[in-house]
Design brief:
6-stranded mixed beta sheet; alpha/beta; Nitrilase/N-carbamoyl-D-aminoacid amidohydrolase; single chain; 35% helix
Length: 323
């Protein structure tokens, strides 16, 4: 058996070796946990970035059932009376705000009158001064606004409608497609069917058509394929005075059918007043605006041949099963 003599130098040397090994091991462990933390961080970041937009789009496409407080603004519109019509629009917005509405819906050609040839030189571009004034009213009264406006684009006149949010942002513009060219010379220029669409808003997915666009099955079917939560339709529904109130039944039936077809609530808002130009001069705009639910059941009917402002809590976001 060999006797081993361990000196203090040997002990010191051994301790130094152990300390060195311990330090190295600590360094390795620290690096391991640092690398593990980085891996966890980047893994989370990747999955968050990769999948969050998909979840956002899914929620936007399928609005949860809720109600929106809708104001039906059935106003008097006088041909070419821009300033008077603006005053009537603002008065309606004041009433809607007082009743805590969230969206205010107005008729077709609310500033210059429908099928008014003077609009060829009176109308403004969109965006432009008229739509800017509507945006300012939306901000002032804290309301989303859907309204029909004549639009000038170069030498063309469009029968358009806009949707403006409560901050005044222009969310959507629709140009009427089914323009009834026989009623004005030169007629309105036509919008394009492929431009039919919807816009995501704080109240759900909203679609805008204009009056006779809802006569055409193909346009309504295109809209249905986009699965809106709410349809807002400015109308210029006119007939000889002795045809009212019976003529309102045709508008009522149309709103019922189209709401049930698209499977979402629909507001069809008519004006009151009189046509002053063209082959229908002297015809009466009879009011009688309607709101229907997603099954086509009529929930609201406005006055016959009289101005009216009605506010309704409208359930949206619930759809019948697709067949």
């Amino acid at each position: 058996m060999l006797a081993t003599h361990i000196t203090e130098d040997d002990v010191a040397s051994s301790r130094h070796g152990i300390d060195s090994i311990t330090s190295s091991l600590h360094h390795v462990i620290t690096r391991f946990f640092f690398a593990s933390s980085l891996f966890h961080f980047f893994t989370c970041a990747f999955f968050t970035c990769a999948f969050t937009p998909i979840l956002t789009l899914t929620s936007a496409a399928q609005s949860a059932p809720h109600t929106v407080r809708l104001a039906i603004c059935q106003i008097l519109v006088i041909d070419s009376d821009r300033e008077g019509n603006f005053r009537r629009i603002e008065y309606a917005l004041e009433q809607a705000q007082a009743q805590h509405a969230q969206i205010a819906v107005f008729p077709e050609s609310s500033l210059l009158g429908w099928e008014n040839p003077e609009a060829h030189h009176l109308a403004a571009p969109i965006p432009g001064p008229d739509s800017d004034r509507i945006a300012a009213l939306a901000r002032k009264h804290g309301l989303m606004i859907a309204i029909g406006l004549d639009e000038k684009d170069g030498d063309k006149l469009y029968d358009s409608a806009i949707l403006v949010d409560k901050t005044g942002k222009l969310l959507w513009k629709h140009r009427k497609i089914n323009v009834l060219p026989e009623l004005m010379n030169p007629p309105y220029s036509q919008g394009k069917p492929q431009d039919i669409g919807i816009v995501d808003t704080e109240y759900g997915r909203i679609a805008v058509l204009i009056c006779a666009d809802t006569f055409t099955d193909a346009y309504v079917e295109r809209l249905k394929s986009l699965r809106p939560d709410l349809m807002l339709v400015p109308y210029g529904w006119a007939a000889l005075n002795d045809k009212w109130p019976e003529h309102s039944k045709e508008l009522e039936g149309l709103v019922q059918r189209r709401a049930a077809q698209v499977q979402c609530p629909m507001a069809g808002v008519d004006l009151v007043g009189e046509m002053t130009h063209g082959p229908w001069a002297g015809w009466t705009y009879g009011g009688s605006s309607f709101v229907a639910d997603a099954t086509g059941r009529i929930l609201l009917t406005a006055r016959d041949r009289d101005t009216d402002l009605r506010v309704i809590d409208l359930p949206i976001g619930s759809r019948a099963p697709q067949h």
